[in-house]
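Data card: per-record layout.
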Amino acid sequence: MVTIEQRAKLESIIVNQWITPVFQPIISLKDGNVLGFEALSRVSEPGLFDNIEEMFQCAETSGCIWMLEQVCRRAILRKIYEQMDTLNQYGAKIFINVSPKILHDEKFREGFTREYTKRYGIDTERIVFEITERERVEDEKSFQQAIEHYKMQHYQIAIDDVGAGYAGLNRICSLTPGYIKLDTELVRDVYKNPIKYAMIKGMVEFSHSSGTLLIAEGIETQKELELLIDLGVQYGQGYYLAKPQKQLHFDNQKAVAQILEKNTYNHMHNHFGVKKYYIKNLVRTGLTVAPHVMVESVLSYMKQNNEVVGICVLDQEQVTGVLTREKLFQKLSGQYGFSLYRKKNIGDLADKNFLMVDGRSSISSVAKIAMEREMDALYDFIVVKEEDKYIGIVTIQDLLKKAMEIDVDLAKCANPLTGLPGNIVIDQEVKESVESGKKCTIYYFDLDNFKAFNDVYGFEKGDEVIRILADVLKNNAKENDFVGHIGGDDFVMICEGFQPFAFSEKIRTEFEGRAHLLYKEEDRVRRYIQSCNRHGVTELFPLVSVTIVSASNEQKAFGNYEEVVSMLAGYKKSAKVEKRQLATG
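The structure for this 585-residue chain is written out next.
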């Protein structure tokens, strides 16, 4: 029931256009870049509606939701127009909330024609309609037709509040949105709730299979952020990342650093940092055709090129369907197949339900998803995209072959103490870095006074020192860097580009700060322990430290693998001698 006072407030807002838009960034949970900004409406005059949802409910009940949404939309478009340069700098999209009840209204359509949005300098490709799941749709058929209309105008669609609404997966399946927004209540304390965890995990698998991207709403803690990254959710928004603000702006470097650090750790831990484990490294070009190409032309090409496994129908860099060689030949076989289909457009025959994955997905995760498909699609090739653009295909044969190779590599190479790759992979990575000529720095790490620590504190504590160094190296490695464990207390790290001296000092400081906490307080205070040296003579040993040496091709190209290994060994020996001389005065 709307009171007279509420109705009067609402009319004042609409007549005077007392609406101010604010924008909340939507951030990639892979690299911290801005995907877009969700436009939210706030009442600009005090003393009216403090609760925005109450204002919209009042407008709905009063029958003036259209007028209110029109005021909100105009305010949003004007504000975007004023900040268009900033929007372009981010390369960002604008997410606009739309009630499903007005989406098929002719007035709304007129307000979102291409001509109308061009007045504000906004391409339709930059606008994403957020359709809330919280409201019931009375005429589902008309609603779906309206969605298809906007898709034809190159608007994108996001289903909002998933996990708290009416239609759920049925609506998602029928609308095939570009984005799914996980409701705040589903995200809240997800690390405490196994049911929420399982639901989001299932949505991530659905996302990979359907090519739909997930956005987690309402991220308010670091724990929520890190678990969502672990689960593979692609994007997020919430107060922990950034609050809504009047300007198109994002500058939470702390959160970005946490996102990068968590992804780096996961990447190193799960895939050893070896780039060949990305699915994009198995991609073959594949045959692409426009939707209007006739079937008989594709058939003719395939008959002349036996190596072509199928085609991808590509419309403005977006894959709209696929057709394998086998399925095309099946459709055209039989008494009437060829005559029935040969003059049709290939886009009409192509399968619209296909597996598309991001190029940065791991080979093992894609293999799992591919093997869970229906039997009739089990051996279909996989479409691979990067930054929402098609880059090629991967066949099941190539996928399974590489997955088996990886399993063998992991079994042979993983160091049981740290989980890092051992000598076989280290040799491969060093050789590749040397032979490729790419700009890089190769580090060698070796612990000092480690034997004495082991003798006094025991092997269990010694293992903990090794794990601390491994953890510090992984945490300081960037996404494309490599960390390997030679064995014992020796490690290798390969970094892209050239690192400043401060990088080594940061690793040294972090390691020693954590490792020294394993000593008894009296040993930490006096800065040494007493133990027998290698000759059985009692000696005083400083606290454990790390020797760090490096070689780079900044000034001079690497000669060959043996030369680099010999160079690092010489540097280490000299550094050890210098440390002993300094210790003895």
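Known properties of this structure: The longest strand covers residues 19-28. The CA atoms of residues 42 and 176 lie 30 Å apart.

See the next section for split statistics.
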